[in-house]
Write a structure and sequence with these properties.
It is a single chain. This protein has three helices and five strands; from the N terminus they run H-E-E-E-H-E-H-E. It has 133 residues and is α/β, with parallel strands linked by helices. The chain has a domain of 71 residues: Nucleotidyltransferase, domain 5. It has a five-stranded mixed sheet, with helices on one face. The radius of gyration is 32 Å and the shape is elongated.
């Protein structure tokens, strides 16, 4: 007697289509329900220099805030605590009304000091320019 061998394999095929459907539905769900944050950054772009043929406009007085590599602050070459910078700037603005505020920061200074000073200047309503030296 001959034994008959079955030509089919013993392995069962798994249909992957329903699993792919579920994955795509979940992907669409997470994309639709996700909230994207609009985070603002600090604009560090320098303004372009004036054209050489343009005459110099009368310059306004400036108040310079400098943060050195060790993250110590000074306002118009007078050393001060970094959390008291705004008080010194407001005092100097009383002497120099309409003065520009320039925030100069060393590349080695901590980023946290720059963000703190810029936030305090913005909160006080003072426009400032940032220079990285």
């Amino acid at each position: 007697m001959r034994r008959r061998r079955s030509k089919g394999s013993d392995e069962a095929d798994v249909d992957m289509t329903p699993m792919l459907d579920i994955v795509f539905i979940m992907l669409i769900f997470f994309i639709v329900t996700a909230t994207f944050l609009d985070e603002r950054g600090i604009d560090l772009t320098q303004p372009p220099p004036p054209p050489p043929d343009q005459p110099d406009a009368p310059s306004k007085p400036a108040i310079t805030i400098y943060v050195d590599g060790k993250s110590t602050c000074s306002v118009d070459n007078r050393r001060t605590e970094c959390d008291r910078v705004i008080l010194d700037v407001e005092r100097l603005l009383a002497d120099k009304p309409g003065a520009n505020v320039i925030l100069r920061i060393d590349k080695a200074a901590r980023h946290q000091v720059l963000v703190l000073l810029k936030d305090e200047l913005d909160t006080a309503g003072l426009q400032s320019k940032i220079e990285v030296v």
